[in-house]
Design brief:
The protein has about 290 residues and is an alpha/beta fold. It is about 35% helix and about 20% strand. Bound molecules: adenosine monophosphate (AMP). The site of adenosine monophosphate (AMP) has 17 residues, from helix 2 and strand 5.
């Protein structure tokens, strides 16, 4: 196993210079954007990057512009030392970009990136400013790193769709890889936010995955009416006392438009609050 330790850089300009030199040597760059509190889901992206690129950069930045007032920006876990230890255990990550907010958004910063279409529904409806914040920070990270390939998780399905649309619409040269969802043994999708769950809530949280499995089974058994599938999912999730549904959607996997009949590939997406913690999950069917 490679034992190189990542070089931790806070100034994006320094990272840009280091990576530009490596690109001139013909090295390919892989970028894994994260907000830290790294878990196996993040590490799966890191492993993909290591297998496909010469140099891997992990960014760890709790991006203020993608949080709305009243969301969990302040309490979001910030555990850089533990994150670096996890990356060490994987090995082979050359650079960690760990900027402060002022490094990414210096005094006078005033730029906006708005991607239309796929941002409108679902997360976009419940978090209207969220994807503008995601788009601006990810575009900056693409430009800072000059990455050849950037790695995202299917866990944030709509986010990956937004990034892919940004790449298409703005003719960015970076390639996007979307990697499968990594789950806990009981099915709960790994997420830095799972730490917020009380022990009782943690026991209820796998209901999201059980609802997705139910949808998959109903569709495999021939269900074509999304309303009927969503009704059964709602009933199942309703059996968890701490659960409150934000949305359940059965959508076209590319446009994320709601389907009124299931007759081909679809993506089932949901957002559910377990107590005060908002969780998202999804599954592509069949
Ligand atoms: P985050 O730190 O939550 O912003 O996530 C950083 C990246 O890791 C995003 O591309 C996520 O989609 C991805 N990711 C988060 N959780 C998982 C998971 N359980 N499986 C796969 N990828 C994930």
């Amino acid at each position: 196993m490679t034992t190189i330790k990542p070089e931790v850089i806070s100034d994006p300009r320094v990272l840009s210079e280091r990576l530009a030199a490596l690109r001139r040597e013909g090295k390919t760059i892989g970028l894994v954007p994260t907000m830290g509190a790294l878990h196996e889901g993040h590490l799966s992206l890191v492993r993909q990057s290591k297998s496909l690129c010469d140099v891997t950069v992990v960014s760890i930045f709790v991006n203020p512009t993608q949080f709305a007032p009243g969301e969990d920006y302040e309490k979001y876990p910030r555990v850089l030392d533990a994150d670096l230890a996890r990356l060490d255990s994987v090995g082979g990550v050359e650079f960690v970009l760990a900027p402060a907010p002022k490094d990414m958004y210096p005094e006078g910063f005033d730029a906006h990136v708005h991607i239309g279409g796929v941002t409108r529904r679902l997360e976009g409806e419940f978090r209207p400013t969220h994807f503008d914040g995601v788009a601006v920070v990810v575009l900056k990270l693409f430009n800072i790193s000059g990455a050849d390939i950037a790695f995202f998780g299917q866990k944030d399905y709509q986010q990956a769709a937004v990034i892919q649309k940004m790449v298409r619409d703005l003719n960015l040269s970076v390639k996007i890889r979307v990697c499968p969802i990594v789950r806990e043994e009981d099915g709960l999708a790994m997420s830095s936010r799972n730490k917020y769950l009380s022990p009782g809530e943690r026991k209820e949280a796998p209901v999201l995955k059980r609802a997705l499995d139910l949808a998959r089974k109903m569709i495999a058994d021939g269900a074509t009416d999304p309303a009927q599938v969503k009704h059964e999912m709602r009933t199942l999730i309703g059996s968890a006392p701490s659960a409150a549904i934000d949305y359940i959607s059965i959508a076209d996997p590319d446009t994320l438009d709601e389907l009124d009949r299931i007759d081909g590939k679809a993506v089932v997406l949901l957002a559910v609050k377990i107590g005060a913690t908002r969780l998202i999950d999804n599954m592509i069917v069949p």
